[in-house]
Every structure is written in C-alpha cells, then in structure tokens.
Amino acid sequence: MRKWLIGCVLLCGLPVFGLAQSLEDVIRLAQDSAVTAFQSQYEYEYHQQRHARFEALRKPQLTLNVVPNYMRMINDISRDYVYIRNWDRFSTAAQVKLSQKVLGLGGEAYVGSQAIWTEYLAKDLFERPRDFVAAPVIVGYQQPLVGYNVYRWEKAVEDERLEAARKQHEYDLRLIAEEATRRFFRLACAQGMLDMCERNKQAADTLYAIAKEKAGIAMVTLAEVRSLELQRLNAANALLSARNEEQLARESLQFYLHLEEGNHLLDTRLAIPSETRLVDLSDAEALQLAHAISPVIQHQQMAITEARHQQEKARREAGVKVGVDLNVGMQQMGGTFAEAYRSPQFYMLGAVSISVPIVDHGAGKKGYAAASAWKAREEQALREEERALREDVLTTLENLRSHQRMLSQTAEAVALADDVFLLTADNYANGLCDINTYSLAQSRRDNAYNQYLTALAKYWTTYYHFLTLTQYE
Length: 473
Description:
The protein is α+β, with helices and mostly antiparallel strands.
C-alpha cells in the first residue's frame, strides 16, 4: 500500500502542460479570425479612404460642367398683348474649370473657359435665332465669409479623426488579445482542475478498494470504510463537474476562434507561460503611455477641435459678414462659334457681399453661446475620460503587482502542500495517522492548487488588460 500511495503522490503533483497551443498562438489566431478584428479593419480602411479623399479634394480639381436648358413661352389670350406668340428656347452651357482651394485664406481660386449656345426655335420671331457666347479665359477668386478659414479647421478635424481611427483599430486588436487570454486561461484552469479531479478520483477508488479488502480481515473500521466511500462519491461528483466546466471552456474558446469541429486545437493541451513578465514602469510612465494611445482620448480631442470650429464659425456669423467673388476674363458674343471667339473683349467683375444683422432677435449671439457651451461640454467630457483612464490604469497596475505577488506565494503554497501531502501519505501507509488526517492533507493540497490556478488566470488577464491600456512591451 505504501508503494501505491507514493505513486499517487507523484501523479498528483502539479500538472505539466506539454507542448501545445501557447497563449501567443491563441492570441494570433484570435486576431486573425475574430469577427471584431475584421470589423475593426474595415472601419479603419474606411477612415483611411475617407482621409485620402479629403486630401485629394484639397488638390487642384479639373471639372467639366454641361448644363442643358429648355424654356417654352406660352401667350395668354385673355391679356391685351396677344400679339406675343408662343416660342421655345434651348440652350446649353459648357464650362471647363480648374479650381484650387486657397488653404491659407479659406477661399477658392479658379481658372477656366466657358461657352454658351442658345437656339430660339421660333426663328421668324427673332432677328438672330442663334447665339453663341464664349469666354475663352476666366480667372477668379471667391470666399463666402472673409476672415473664416474653413479649410484649416477641416484639416485639423480630419487628421485627428484618422489618428483616432488608427488608435481605435490597434486598441480593438488588443481587446481581442485580452478576451482571448481570458478564455485561454478559463480552459487552461479547467484542464488543470480536471487533471486534479481525475487523480483524486483514481486515488479515492484505490483507497476504497484496499479498505474493503482490509475490512474483511478487521484491519480497518467500518467508519473508515464509510469515510472512504463518501470520499470516493465526492471525488466522482467533482470529476463530473470538472469535465462539464472543461467542455464549456473549450467550446467558448472554439467559438471565439471560429474553429470548426475536429480542429486539432480542441484535442490538445494548452501551454501556460512558465514565467511572469516584468512591468518596470512607474505610475506616471504608465499614465503617459495610456494617454498617448487611448482612442477614447483621441476621439474626445477630435470632438473638442470640431466644437472649437463651430464656435469660431458662429462667432464670425454673429457679426457683419463679408464675402467676395472676383473674376476677370475675356468674353464675346456672335452668331457662330467663330464669331464668338473672334476679338474677345476683356472684362472684370467684382462682387462684395455685406450682411449686417440689424434685427435678428439675438440669433447670432445665441448661436455663438450655444457653440461655446458645447465646447465647454466637450472639454469637461475630456477631463472625465482622463480621470476614468487614470483610475483604470492605476488600479490595473496595482492589481498586476498584487497578482504577481499572489502567484508567487500560491506557487510556494502548492510546493509546501505537496510536501505535506507526501509526508501524510507516507504516515498513513505506515499506520501513523488516520484517514481523516490523510483527507485533510489532500484537501489542503487541492485548495492550494486551486488558488494557484486562480492567481495564474488573474495575473495574465490583468497583464493583458494592462497591455490593452498602455501597449507596453
């Protein structure tokens, strides 16, 4: 019996996780197959293309505009001027225009050429039933609100929007790693508990069989046999529960990784990292890293920039509004295209629009006040996001240090519990202690191992949450 107990002790030590799927392999697979990873990638690509389109629209634009137009005039016989007959007019204007946003001022400069063809279908009513108007060269500049540069604000907002999208994509991938870690260790701990329960069940069955043999020759009491029978039944129930939990954890990881039935990953052990990873960061350094990569902070900063944009626009629109539209060029009219392009005349047009709010019932000032209030709201939201991030980072860092200490202590406790169980098993084999002492030593060892698995899962899930927050390597 002593040799068998020593064998049980060796089998019931810490389980050795063989070479199998490592945590890094599972995380890589999750980031390649998770639905949220594809969604995040598509969203990031959308923002990249949107920003590329924005930059393209800030470069010179060459466009061709063709506008056909038809008009029919019908006389009214109830009026005195019935001598005016019905007539139809068809015209087409074609314009080639090269435009460029003047980014430093907020307006748009353009150069182009234009031709207009007009045809009067009632030819007997008009001396010249066909007209051509040609403007070979047009050069101009327009700005609807002088002093307000919309392009500068749009550039700031779009750049921050793209940066927020990039940080969000990277953050989403780290969230996937965090969730994969959580499910990985749920399965790893379930496998460890299943191993322990299987060994306990095997030990309980063997002890009970030996006790029944000894009871036949009055070497053990009936109470001891009944205690071993109860221990055997409890071990069987614990094993059934452990198998169920292991199956649920395996399916949870399988679904998250989008693995098909029969995939080899589902039939292998998980390889737990053998060593913890040192995080050599002060609280201030961790906060600085987290603030620099936080997509929430970046999105909020973008919202503040947009709010400041709207505040500036409202301030400009609340007072006197001045707009300009200046253009110079060459133009001529004729009955044919050749005549329209022969001897064009120089012209210069200038328009300055001035709008003064005399009675607007405070609409302009209220619009500015509303924009200012919204900007203050976004700034307050940024402070709240920074406070929440600070709390999350400091709490996670403290938990990480605590779980690392706990993991080290529970590993020592497991080693000590194994030694105590080994000595108790030897004493029980030599008749120096009863079954209750043996069961207590086994229970303490199982509890120590359970605490070790719990500390292991908490440490690594906290570590990857810290990586999610700080991208620390």
